[in-house]
Specification:
Layout (H helix, E strand, L loop, with lengths): L1 E7 L2 E8 L2 E5 L1 E4 L9 H7 L4 E5 H6 L8 H5 L4 E5 L2 H7 L6 H10 L4 E3 L11 H21 L3 E3 L8 H12 L5 E4 L3 H5 L3 H12 L7 E4 L8 H6 L4 E4 L1 H7 L2 E4 L2 E4 L18 H5 L3 H28 L3 H9 L3 H11 L2 H4 L11 E2 L9 H10 L10 E2 L11 E4 L2 E4 L11 E2 L4 E2 L11 H19 L12 E5 L6 E6 L2 E6 L6 E3 L1 H10 L6 E4 L4 H5 L4 E2 L3 E4 L8 E5 L5 E7 L3 H6 L4 E5 L3 H4 L1
Parallel strand pairs: 4-11, 5-6, 6-7, 7-8, 9-10, 10-11, 14-18, 15-19, 24-27
Antiparallel strand pairs: 1-2, 2-3, 12-13, 16-17, 20-21, 21-22, 22-23, 24-26, 25-29, 27-28, 28-29
Helix pairs in contact: 5-6, 6-7, 7-9, 9-15, 11-13, 14-15
Length: 598
């Protein structure tokens, strides 16, 4: 029911389909009081939000009868999720209704996503109490799945204890569901404990299947959105837009503004265009709450749209880091994400379409940058060259250069992130004399560069299995940069200008397959689709049987059958874990053309 459409590390744009209703994630589900829908439902439709969340406990206590459709009551045809009343129990005391009673009631009113009657873990609960509650939540989840075939949300709890979050996620993840809200984080949010919220999310996520839909319950302030979605959250819900409005607080992308603190001008918003701050303050509380609430919802949706664009542009790390500098506790939370390198690195591509924008020490600790430094940076000293690309301004081939990342080979001067980064005081200049590359020593430098980059990218020297004297290079006439690599007159590789890494073609894929043992760089597919793959069709996750554990998103890969016969080659969209877990969506984009195999 869920598939990835675009991704940038853990952050992803996906499609979730439930009951023939499709929503695009990341998505915001505004919290709606079922008996107080005006003017919120109209605004939600106008803002083109695909779903809402409302409370089945309030519905039941308010007399909404079983058998009636909650969509009709709300006047909303889109996706409707219902909570079971757990948070109300946390706030107001014990509920009488049991788990099955609430699950059956949600089913009877046509809820698209049903939530079990889970037990809320308080911040001050002991480990023993929380563990008991986790076991009871697991029992209730298992019980609910036997009572209904509807889409079930299984909340993950664990309080402030990371190991208990992992334990809860493992237990709930063993059940037949793919939708997992992270519960018990609202009290952390209310105390600005953003690092602890992300700690709870990442500890939960690492123990769930990568195909799971992750819902952050109650994480509704837009200034926190970039960090939430950076860590792979797919769904958030929010009542902040109305709660803050009741207190005359105005949401912005970077914080909260008290209405009384504004002298006259209001933040830019279609809902504030007609008013000054004084005029808004002079209104009745009800009217003022509606106008501020609509603005707050608008800002939340606008920030959500912005984040989707950042993911499409593969810029979410830059954006999240930039946003984190708006508040010290957000920066603390960003640093918390960086502690999860062993987990997050598996989802990080080896290059991005957007460069690294340095904004502090945290920039060099991002998982893709940290991996590059571990893999490519030497500890010994190198020469200092102040301009990029280094080789164009060097008098000595094969030098090591003191870069912002450490001492790196000049062979990597066009490779991500060395060339695709911007640091204070660092500039690019137009190329000087590219004719120097015609000199014998620099021609050898270019050949060595091909070998070095190939080894960095694929893990073996190219010249360990091909004769370097039979290699020819095609270079740009304008820049002198390597464009294509030929072997015995046949193109085998293309050096991408965007990231300084190689793209395979058919002949190159054959060489790779012949000289790297399985499972290196391989994606193994079901024999059922072999002919389709040979015809150039993309590889869908449901047909992947196995893959190299070292594959990262966007890697160049070989597509093979169970007997390791090469069927095609392409670009990975998912890593191995995702290829195995997902049942929908593309795992590898096939690059085979009909003329290649012929």
């Amino acid at each position: 029911m869920f598939q990835i459409l675009h991704r940038d590390g853990l952050a992803r744009i996906g499609e979730l389909e439930i009951n023939n209703k499709k929503i695009t994630t990341p998505v915001l589900l505004p919290v709606i009081h079922p008996f107080k829908t005006d003017p919120w439902i109209s605004a939600i439709k106008q803002m083109k939000l695909g779903g809402v969340i409302t409370n089945s406990y309030i519905l039941k206590k308010g007399g909404f009868q079983s058998g009636k459709d909650v969509h009709d009551l709300l006047g909303f045809p889109g996706l409707v999720m219902t909570d079971s009343g757990t948070f109300q129990e946390h706030m107001y005391g014990e509920l009488k209704e049991g788990n099955i009673e609430m699950v059956k009631y949600q089913e009877s009113i046509g809820s698209d996503i049903i939530t079990i009657r889970d037990i809320f873990s308080e911040m001050d609960h002991s480990r023993e109490k929380i563990r008991e509650d986790l076991e009871e939540n697991y029992r209730r989840g298992k019980e609910a799945l036997t009572e209904t075939e509807r889409y079930i949300a299984l909340p993950v709890h664990g309080g402030i204890y990371g190991d208990l979050r992992q334990e809860s996620a493992s237990m709930m993840g063993s059940l037949e569901s793919e939708y997992f809200p992270i519960g018990g984080i609202v009290p952390l949010m209310e105390r600005y404990m953003y690092a602890q919220v992300l700690d709870a999310i990442l500890n939960s996520k690492m123990k769930l299947k990568s195909s799971s839909v992750i819902h952050a319950f109650g994480a509704g302030h837009p200034m926190f959105f970039p960090l939430l979605f950076l860590t792979g959250v797919d769904v958030i819900d929010s009542s902040a837009y109305i709660k803050y409005a009741r207190d005359n607080r105005i949401l912005t992308e970077t914080g909260t503004v008290e209405l009384k603190a504004l002298s006259d001008e209001l933040p830019a918003s279609p809902y504030f265009d007609k008013y000054t701050a004084k005029e808004l303050e002079a209104m009745s509380q009800d009217d003022r709450t509606i106008i501020i609430g609509l603005h707050n919802l608008y800002v939340s949706v606008k920030e959500l749209d912005n984040i989707r664009q950042q993911i499409r542009s593969e810029n979410i790390w830059n954006y999240a880091e930039y946003r984190s500098h708006s508040h010290p506790l957000l920066l603390e939370a960003f640093r918390k994400v960086l502690e999860y390198y062993e987990y997050t690195e598996k989802f990080e591509p080896h290059s991005r379409r957007t460069p690294l924008f340095y904004s502090g020490d945290e920039s060099l600790k991002r998982p893709d940058i940290r991996r590059f430094i571990a893999k490519a940076v030497k500890q010994e000293g190198g020469v200092r060259i102040d301009k990029k690309p280094y080789s164009y301004y060097s008098d000595v081939p094969e030098a090591y250069v003191e870069s912002q990342f450490g001492t790196v080979s000049m062979f990597l001067d066009e490779t991500y992130p060395v060339a695709q980064s911007l640091f204070p005081g660092e500039y690019y200049e137009s190329y000087k004399d590219i004719t120097k590359f015609e000199k014998p020593e620099w021609k050898q430098f270019l050949l060595n560069k091909v070998d070095y980059v190939f080894n960095y990218q694929f893990g073996k020297s190219l010249f360990s299995f091909v004769d370097r004297d039979r290699i020819e290079l095609q270079r740009s006439k304008n820049t002198g940069k390597i464009r294509n690599v030929y072997y015995d007159g046949k193109q085998i590789l293309a050096l991408r200008a965007s990231d300084g890494l190689f793209s395979l073609n058919y002949e190159g894929a054959i060489l790779l397959h012949a000289n790297f043992n399985s499972p290196a760089h391989r994606v193994v597919v079901d024999p059922e689709v072999s002919d389709f793959i040979k015809d150039g069709k993309n590889v869908f996750a449901k047909f992947v049987e196995n893959a190299d554990p070292l594959i990262r998103p966007h890697d160049e890969v070989l597509i093979v059958d169970r007997n390791d016969n090469m069927l095609s080659y392409g670009r990975a969209i998912l890593n191995r874990e995702e290829m195995i877990d997902f049942k929908r969506g593309i795992a590898v984009k096939n690059r085979l053309r009909s003329k290649d195999s012929s």
